[in-house]
Amino acid sequence: MKTRRQQEDQRRMEFRRAIESYSEARQLNQELCDYMEGVKNAVWQTVTPPAVDRRNARQAG
Asked: Where on the tree of life does the source sit, at the highest rank (predicted)?
């Protein structure tokens, strides 16, 4: 049987691990969102033709 102090210590450690896990998950989520935003911008710039090309295409037609 664990003493009351051991039970309190165990509870504190579980709480601390939960906080650390939550903090790590938030940081990972933020990094993922930043990465996805960068990918989205890179893809958008690749897919969208420059404005100069669109004007030239209209004049040619």
From this structure: Bacteria
HSE-CB of 16 using CA atoms within 13 angstroms: 6
Domain residue limits, the chain: 4-60
Token digits of residue 22? 């939550």
CB–CB of 2/10 below 8 Å? yes
Token pair for 58: 């209209």
CA dihedral of residues 13, 15, 16, 18 (deg, nearest 10): 120
Give me 55's structure tokens: 């004007």
Predicted TM-score of the model (pTM): 0.56
Residue carrying the six token digits 């969208």: 48
Q: Per-residue pLDDT averaged across 35-56, rounded?
A: 71
Task: Give the separation between CA 42 and CA 38, rounded to whole angstroms.
Answer: 6
